[in-house]
Amino acid sequence: MKEIKIFSPATVANVSCGFDVLGFCLDTVGDEMVIKKTVEKGVKITKIEGYDLPLETKKNVAGVAALALYNHANPDCGFDIEIYKKIKPGSGIGSSSASASGAVFALNELLGKPYNKTQLSNFAMKGEAVASGSEHADNIAPGIFGGFTLVKSNQPLKILELPTPSNLYATIIHPQIEVKTAEARSILPKNVPMQDAITQWSNVGSFVHALHTNDYSLLGESLQDVIVEPYRSKLIPYFSEVQKAALAKSALGSGISGSGPSVFSLSEGIETAKKVEKAIQEVYAKTGIEFYTFTSKINAEGIKIL
Ligand code: HSE
Question: What is the pLDDT, as a whole number, of residue 128?
Fold first, then answer.
């Protein structure tokens, strides 16, 4: 294989209770990338469409991730990368991680799959760090593995694949404002009260149990974030109105997607998810802030070859 075209999906990190560890993969929105093997050695970004991002390999998240794999593999060829960016940078649905994960996935395919998914995630994290200022895999893991994932540890990187209830749908609203991940991380407290920690780890445990037992009601009850959301919700205009509107239409739960400004809701069944989407649109239509919404099934497969 000399060339590959892939779809690298958007992802939701944190999932309310699992800051920096939980994530899931979306299906309807994602970047496309075309990667070609070249005789000339090295990694080049030859084209970026959609958003204004650096072409210089070492300044581009896809380039940095690709280089991490490339330098490790030391192959007798090079790669040209074209990025058709559909996920807006700073949207909170894993824009940088889609670029980083897509690049390493594609290089691995073109090299005959020498690396497993955990190794690919490790390379992709190098790219993610360029964008967010820290190496975390909670967007990368669901993109590369698909479905729901839990990052058990960063060093060494250990990723757990969690089950995906088949009738679960996500609704996303992306207010057209930018929240930089590095800034959204800088406003978080360094210590948390013991009672909040207890609440949070009880929710993470019950959330994972709910996925394993297909218990939609427990899943909803577990979608609570008492540690990060109180700080970050201030960066998202009308956050609590969106959350209330989603819950009023029977969403299982609703929270900040990654570091925001996107907000996700999870629903049982597409009909409920669509009603939630409409209710959220009605909230935001009154605000004067531009926004974009979509509903997606959970993508159990992750990155796809087109
Ligand atoms: N877990 C990360 C955060 C996801 O919330 O800061 C965004 O990169």
Answer: 86
Find the 111 Cα to ligand 1 centroid distance in Å: 30
82 is catalytic: no
pTM score, whole prediction:
0.96
The angle, 0 to 180 degrees and rounded to 10, between the axes of the packed helices 61-73 and 117-132 is: 140
Buried residues in 244-261 as b, exposed as e (16+ CB within 10 A)? ebbbebbbbbbbbbbbbb
Q: The CATH number of 168-297 is which of 3.30.70.890, 3.40.50.720, 3.30.1360.120, 3.30.499.10?
A: 3.30.70.890
Q: How far is the CA of 136 from the centre of ligand 1 (A)?
A: 7
The single-letter DSSP state of residue 75 is -
Cis peptide before 163 (omega within 30 of 0): no
CATH 3.30.70.890 domain locations along the chain: 168-297
Q: Please report, for residues 48, 70, 154, 236, 247, the alpha-carbon distance to residue 255 in angstroms, rounded to integers and kept in the order given.
A: 31, 37, 24, 11, 11
Helix axes 117-132, 95-110, angle to 10 degrees: 140
Nearest to 266 by CA among 16, 10, 9: 16
d(CA 64, CA 43): 9
Going by CATH, does the domain composed of 3-163 fall within 3.30.230.10? yes
Q: Quick one: which atom of ligand 1 is closest to the CA of 19?
A: 1
Query: 306 in helix, strand or coil?
Result: coil
How large is the average pLDDT for residues 137-141? Answer: 95
What span, in angstroms and rounded, lies between the C-alpha atoms of 79 and 180?
30
Ligand 1 site residues, Cβ closer than 6 angstroms = 13-14, 19-20, 132, 136, 138-139, 181, 184-185, 258-259
Using CA positions, which residue lies closest to atom 6 of ligand 1?
259
**pLDDT per residue as tens digits for the range 35-80:** 999 999 999 999 999 999 999 999 999 999 999 999 999 999 999 9
Radius of gyration of the chain (CA): 19
Active-site annotation holds for 128: yes
